[in-house]
Amino acid sequence: MKQLTVLYILILMTIRVWSNPLHIEPVRNIIIDTDCAIDDMRAISLLLSQPGIIINAILLSDGSLAPNDGIEKVMTLLHEFNRDTIPVAPGKEIKGLNPPWRQFNRQLSWGRTTGSISPRPDAVGLLYEKLNQEEKTILVCLGPLTNIAQLIRENDSIASKIERIVWYNESVEPLKGFNYECDQPAADFIFGTGIRIDVISNLQKEEAVLGPAFSSVLVRANTPLSRALHHVYSQSAVSDLLFQRHFSLCDDLVAVYLTDPELFDMNIITNSSNVRYNQDYSVSAVKEVIEDLIKGNYIPGEGVVFNEFPKNRELFTYDVRQIMDSAIVRYGLDEWKANVMTDEFHGHLGVFSIVGAKMGIKARELFDADHDQLEVVTFAGTKPPYSCLNDGLQVSTGATLGMGMIHLASDSITRPAAIFTFKDRSVKLSLKPEYLKQLNDDIKKAIISFGLKDEGYWHLVRRNAINYWLNWDRNKIFDIKEYTGGLK
């Protein structure tokens, strides 16, 4: 019977009967706007290496390099990836702009040879043309917002074609940083249009530094991405600075955010609901994404917790990898498996489903019972969010609806609690009030911050669930009482 139950769950995970509220379709249409700093080169290369992303154009803005100085660099990079057909166009220069690192960026080669297609003359005209060709487009901005601001000032109706702007900038509260200060009026104008803008920053994290290990990965790998990056990072002006740990994750964070947004803790500015920014991110997970892309091992996350049935760590999604070792050490392999299978069975990584999995494992321990041996009466009802507990209970105990071993209590007040019976003994487990309060407060915060229909809500729920998974000990979070009232 145990084998049949496991098979039942695996079949459900394979055919994906339930839709995943956090499942986001691969990014399809983007336009990149760059000022051609070396970290822009990394970001553009990461985006070029992913077949699920369609780059409709690359625009050049003034900043680390003048727009016309960046044309050859972008076009040689496109040639490295055999993507010469992507149109390129420079924008207007900003009078008096000449940062001290411009000469360093000017001397770098981004590729070996240039393709045969000539650049377009006007970034704003190209942007207008490409936006009109698609229903919605994401604008990926790695420099100032000059080109976008100019277009919307001239054609404000085109803003409806922009799904959102994803912009790298040092800070959003307060607004500061090189990309902002290059063209402050343009940025202030864009922030006032109501267009959604996601601002990504490296938050000056020390661990975001790139060092010699980055070069080692490039040397060992043999992919178009590794070869393109190695061409730049093997140049003496760059390699010396790399070994001095001069470079950090910057604009490349934007590329990772587009494909793996769950690694970023996003917040909304309360008085500007169109603006959100990252208040934290997992540096180790971002670096794993980049390393896997370089090696050619990156698998877009189509599942909730893993991309195919897991055999090793690399098959888990990047955020779950970060807790895998610690969670197994703290709570054992049995709970780890229950949580993993619950999340796939449940259809998303949810907070009450995690609690249900932990509750079921704890109940089995109390009875020293094996899978499929407990009968369960649940007080979680049939409406989310409490009813999500039931999926965790089914997977962790084997008391599934199909086996007829789990039942709904007749009590009209729903709560995260259940009665477990084995032979002639029954025990009631309830989530302690202080944990329930934290959980409910976190859900309310997510709803207030994003609303139920925004993907930001589900990202925050996922982050909270991973936090509970790692930090809530099943031996401490439940009230446990012997139960003599009979099953209802």
**Got a strand count?**
17
Strand order of the largest sheet: 3-2-1-4-5-8-12-11
- Helicity range of the residues? 40-55%
Q: Can you say what the CATH homologous superfamily of the largest domain is?
A: Ribonucleoside hydrolase-like
Structural class: alpha/beta
Largest sheet: 8 strands, mixed
Overall, the morphology is: elongated
Report the sheet-strand fraction.
15-25%
CATH class designation of the largest domain: Alpha Beta
CATH fold name of the largest domain: Inosine-uridine Nucleoside N-ribohydrolase, Chain A
Average pLDDT works out at 90
Low-confidence stretches: 1-25
Number of helices: 18
Concise summary:
The protein is built from 18 helices and 17 strands.
